[in-house]
Inverse folding.
């Protein structure tokens, strides 16, 4: 509060008084400048400290000391020139901000300057690679240039950005477009999230299919073994296709990739499907 008074003395603070008149509660709102309001608060704390001391259960003098320390710090900071120097350096680095680049890219696109817009969006994304608006705009620019390879690769990037933003419906839409554009291999973590999303939607057949595609694409990676186990569980518990589940569990078990953390799940799954197969044969 002390620092605020020193730095922003004319800033108005919104206040509200509440008082009871009879059985009605009245409220009165007003704005007061910091230079008028905060000294009144400080005076009240000083009076309370003098007359009540520790008896009120409130450390009034501690409040006063904090107020004074904040005011002193803000005053010294303003006199040091450090803040002004920092502001100048920041302004020098952000004279052409990423937001301005996106606005300029939009203007360039309106003038049908696709290459100019493309260059500006790439500059923007160099500063803010996680900006979804920029990634989506880059995608549309590749489409307008009919650069099919770049468009397909950018679909994977946009899909990942939507997954990171937990916008799974949009991520799924972009993934479908990626497959339609000839894409075959997403980043394993993004692909796994897509598979899990399909499970939450109870799209069991497609989830099992995507898990198996992931497993094939990352056959030499632990993610591939994990995907095999996930697909086997779907076949066993949701689709009731024990033979398919057994094959996937066995494939996961035989994988040369270290997967000791999955051994229990694999053995348990195999025991379950073998029991189901034996029971089916007995019937």
């Amino acid at each position: 509060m002390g620092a605020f008074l020193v730095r922003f003395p004319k800033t108005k603070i919104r206040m509200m008084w509440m008082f009871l008149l009879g059985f009605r509660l009245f409220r009165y709102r007003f704005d007061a400048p910091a230079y008028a309001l905060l000294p009144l608060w400080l005076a009240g704390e000083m009076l309370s400290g003098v007359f009540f001391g520790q008896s009120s259960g409130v450390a009034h003098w501690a409040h006063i000391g904090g107020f004074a320390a904040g005011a002193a710090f803000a005053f010294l900071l303003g006199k040091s020139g450090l803040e002004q120097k920092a502001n100048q350096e920041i302004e020098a680095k952000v004279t052409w901000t990423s937001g301005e680049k996106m606005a300029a890219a939009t203007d360039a696109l309106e003038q049908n300057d696709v290459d100019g817009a493309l260059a500006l969006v790439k500059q923007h994304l160099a500063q803010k690679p996680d900006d979804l608006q920029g990634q989506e705009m880059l995608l549309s620019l590749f489409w307008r240039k009919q650069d099919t390879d770049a468009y397909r690769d950018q679909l994977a990037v946009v899909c990942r950005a939507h997954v990171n933003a937990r916008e799974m419906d949009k991520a799924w839409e972009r993934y479908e477009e990626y497959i339609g554009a000839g894409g075959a291999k997403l980043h394993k973590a993004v692909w796994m999230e897509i598979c899990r999303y399909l499970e939450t939607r109870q799209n069991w057949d497609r989830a099992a299919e995507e898990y198996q595609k992931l497993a094939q694409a990352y056959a030499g990676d632990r993610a591939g073994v994990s995907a095999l186990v996930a697909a086997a569980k779907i076949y066993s518990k949701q689709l009731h296709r024990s033979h398919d589940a057994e094959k996937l569990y066995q494939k996961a078990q035989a994988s040369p990739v270290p997967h000791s953390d999955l051994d229990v799940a694999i053995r348990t799954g195999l025991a379950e499907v073998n029991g189901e197969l034996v029971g089916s044969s007995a019937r």
Q: What stands out?
A: The longest helix spans residues 60-80. Residues 185-282 form a domain with the Serine Threonine Protein Phosphatase 5, Tetratricopeptide repeat fold (CATH 1.25.40.10). The chain has a mean pLDDT of 87.
